[in-house]
Write a structure and sequence with these properties.
Length: about 425
């Protein structure tokens, strides 16, 4: 079959990159030059070419960068490219926080420092430092090696120079607040915009923002990201919903517009789903559902409920949280989960669906970045976070010894999402709650 550069641009871009890489390598070899290292901070080599390099070599550098960028963008595809752009402000924000805290000077230029020691040195919570720096690593700003220890890269070492640090500070930290606490009332969002209510409470003050937020939630599930998020229906496949039994009742706590519930109810016609959210969020959801999914009438319904207060739907088979727990710090998550307990019957399930942070080094830089952008978005809005696998189990254990972690249901292999299942197994002989 005939192939050309138009139908297979990846091949022609890749071969262009090889040609230019060859030109650059030959120049380095024949001039006995060292190629700038990402990690060797002693090399002092800051630019990839001397200013007086021949024009042909300078052009090769320019063209290789252009080809790499085009190739990268094409391979990423529109969805992933847009998602990266949407979150790009984290690049600047982490840089601002790093200089404001004096991290570049606190990390030794010729060694490493542990997260704990660095946190003490610069006076921040260690957990926040880990969140911020593990994102910065995705931009080759500092590096973690071995696990738990931070060293400079040649890029972060630049910011250890006072004039460069001052420049970075001027452009970034002057304008950006940095989080310093664990409370959802003292997140960067609150400090920056002067709100004294949580992100979600302040959202409900403005109907236009609520509507935009609901649309944004659907938008996120439409942008598939290789290795991070398959698509909006991944939870439908990730969990065997039929094990809940014929006619089972699911409560989709903080379910927003109910788009995930609709997908589940469509795939499993025997299930009933109640979508709960704040009154302002679901005010017109029922009528919208009847227009968009008339076939789900009677099986998907909406209920106003503040998830921090006692769960009103008694005896449901499962209480499901899709991208909700990651919106809150640990203490608030425990409060949310505890509010379910008085309503739960023995054997009922709590299903927490969120991204799972992998151990460092497991994902490619770009996937790690995509995931940690989301982590930092949670940090900014509520001092919240994405969680490592063990942290989900810890949340159940902190909620009650009767809420027993059972299983992690991994979404598709090209996703970082999982559903963590806990089963209510009351140890006391208190009577089971009645089915509502
Ligand atoms: C990140 S969104 C997730 C929505 C939905 N589960 C989804 O996956 O599209 C978090 C949801 O939590 C809701 N929420 C925030 N605070 C709440 C509260 N106190 N009680 C009930 N819902 C709340 C918000 O209105 C929002 O719809």
């Amino acid at each position: 079959m005939a192939t050309d550069s138009t139908s297979f641009p990846l091949r022609s871009l890749a071969s262009e990159i090889c040609t230019h890489a060859d030109t650059l390598s030959t120049f380095y070899e024949t001039h006995d030059l060292t190629f700038p290292s990402l990690t060797d901070t002693s090399s002092g080599c800051l630019n990839s070419l001397p200013h007086d390099a021949p024009e042909e070599v300078l052009n090769a550098r320019r063209d290789i960068l252009e080809a790499i960028r085009t190739l990268e963008t094409m391979v990423q595809g529109p969805s992933e490219t847009l998602r990266l752009l949407v979150h790009n402000f984290h690049d600047t924000a982490t840089l601002g926080t790093v200089v404001r805290l004096g991290i570049p000077e606190a990390v030794p230029l010729d060694g490493s420092i542990s997260f704990g020691e660095l946190a003490r040195k610069v006076g921040v919570l260690e957990s926040k430092l880990v969140q911020i720096l593990r994102y910065a690593f995705t931009n080759y700003l500092f590096r973690e090696s071995p696990e738990g220890y931070i060293s400079h890269t040649t890029i972060s070492a630049l910011i250890a120079q006072p004039n460069i640090a001052a420049l970075v500070y001027l452009i970034t930290a002057e304008c950006l607040p940095s989080p310093a606490a664990d409370s959802p009332l003292r997140a960067a969002y609150n400090l920056g915009f002067g709100h004294n209510r949580t992100f979600f409470d302040s959202l409900t003050e403005e109907p236009e923002r609520v509507s935009r937020f609901n649309k944004a939630m659907k938008g996120y599930t439409q942008l598939t990201l290789e290795g991070i998020q398959a698509d909006g229906t991944e939870d439908v496949e990730a969990f065997p919903w039929d094990i809940l039994g014929k006619g089972a009742k699911i409560v989709d706590v903080a379910g927003g517009s109910g788009h995930i519930s609709c997908a589940i109810a469509t795939a499993y016609p025997d299930l009933e789903v109640i979508v709960q959210d704040l009154p302002q969020v679901i005010s017109d959801s029922q009528s919208k559902l009847e227009q968009s999914h008339p076939e789900l009438k009677g099986r998907v319904s909406y209920m106003a409920h503040d998830m921090f207060s006692e769960q009103p739907v008694k005896g449901a088979d499962a209480y499901y949280f899709h991208k909700v727990i990651h919106d809150w710090p640990k203490a608030e998550c425990v409060k949310i989960l505890r509010s379910l307990l008085p309503a739960m019957k023995p054997g009922a399930r709590v299903l927490v669906s969120d991204y799972v942070l992998p151990p460092p080094g497991e994902l490619t830089k770009i996937q790690d970045k995509l995931l940690r952008q989301w982590d930092l978005t949670m940090l900014i809005i509520a001092n919240a976070k994405e969680r490592y696998r063990e942290e989900f189990k810890e949340l159940f254990a902190l909620t009650s010894p009767d809420l027993v972690f059972n299983k992690e249901y991994k979404a598709r292999s090209n996703s970082a999402g999982s559903i963590f299942e806990a089963i209510y197994k009351p140890s006391s002989s208190a009577p089971a709650v009645a089915k509502s």
